[in-house]
Amino acid sequence: MSQRQVLQVFEQYQRARTQFVQAVAELAARPQNIETLQNAGVLSLLRPLLLDVVPTIQQTAALALGRLANYNDALAEAVVKGNILPHLVCSLSEQNRFYKKAAAFVLRAVGKHSPQLAQAIVQCGALEMLVICLEDFDPGVKEAASWALGYIARHNSELSQAVVDAGAVPLLVLCIQEPEIALKRIAASTLSDISKHSPELAQTVVDAGAIAHLAQMILNPDAKLKRQVLSALSQIAKHSVDLAELVVEAEIFPVVLTCLKDSDEYVKKNGATLIREIAKHTPELSQLIVNAGGVAAVIDCIGSCRGTVRLPGIMMLGYVAAHSENLSMAVIVSKGIPPLCACLIEEHEDHIKAAAAWALGQVGRHTPEHARAVAVANVLPTLLAMYMDTRSSEDLQIKTKRALKSILQKCTYLPALEPLLHDAPPNIMKHIVGQFSKVLPHDSKARRLFVTTGGLKKVQEIKAEPGSLLQEYINTINSCYPEEIVRYYSPGYSEILLERVENYHPVL
Known about the structure:
This protein is mainly alpha-helical. It contains 34 helices and no strands.
């Protein structure tokens, strides 16, 4: 047998291996094939091909494994149990850029499913190799490594700390300065995933100088990059006053307000989230946002969009209003109440309605003037109806009840309170009647109106427990009127009158 014939055998075997891995990689890209591949024992066949002498076979085998592991956690677990990760990690430092990208993809696909699988990646020493890949010359390798690190860090603070301890943060900050947009996006996303868990982790990102570079990219034309940049700054700012102030010091105002007018819904949402995370900390930070025109911009944003995009803006207005009377008045003067009322009526999701109810409660709870501003928007009957609706979620019922209570306890604008007398349950009724008992003794015009609109008649129909607070309020209201008027409007008085007519014998 000639040398050529001998080599031909090897060539045929190589061609067969190449065809096999390419076919498996293509099949693994389609979800309907996954179960069949798994039952055919594909993992044990791919494993030796990771150590193949031919680089393209190694890369394609890694790609196929990544696609399989990406599909569900059972397959990702099978990759871990099949002892495949150590092979990948060993090759990461030695192989070419194509293999590195494919190997990082496998690690990302395994790590994304659960903290346990991400921990398995940490234990096999992959973090150190991924961090080395962040220094690679090829932007695609950096991107793949950054992506894998982000998927590990996002699970919990322990895994995030492991990524930090491996030295990833300074290199990720260098990655966001690279010219490639895709690399910037993934690096910003990974910094966001690291920062979100604790003030300490966020501080690590800040200490690496991330804020200044992230803030410069707020005006980048790429929407996907802006999403990640705004998210990262939000995750830093949310933890403490100090961190929020560092974000503000990077001069993000008024630049960030342009994001609220962006055509991309997620940019709007993440921009509003960043402003919310800053506003929630202190009255001073909220005042800074008001001075920059932030409240008006958020109100416009809420009015121009629908659904969950509105949520951070709604909450931001609530946080600003909660801090002080003046800040709450800033929300009122900026015409913030009508959009919040619209959210309450237009939205279908209970958690968005609950946020709007909470925000309205924060606006109206300070003084009679604040409460009146909310009451004249005719929102109190809506809040009451939602509180009493059995289909409302428990959270919505709690939020509407609290909002009603805090607004009613300050509201002295009686025309807005009167419609509630006819429908309110006892626990809300006491607050409504309590407000009437405060105003009527000092306002003769209001006393007259209370009679002509049927309010006094309604109060007489309320069945209050003797000695209860509600009964005290009713007694106070009744003491504002002559006894015969109170008697006239009491239930059953017309029958007493008719009885007296029947029993009356005229003297002729």
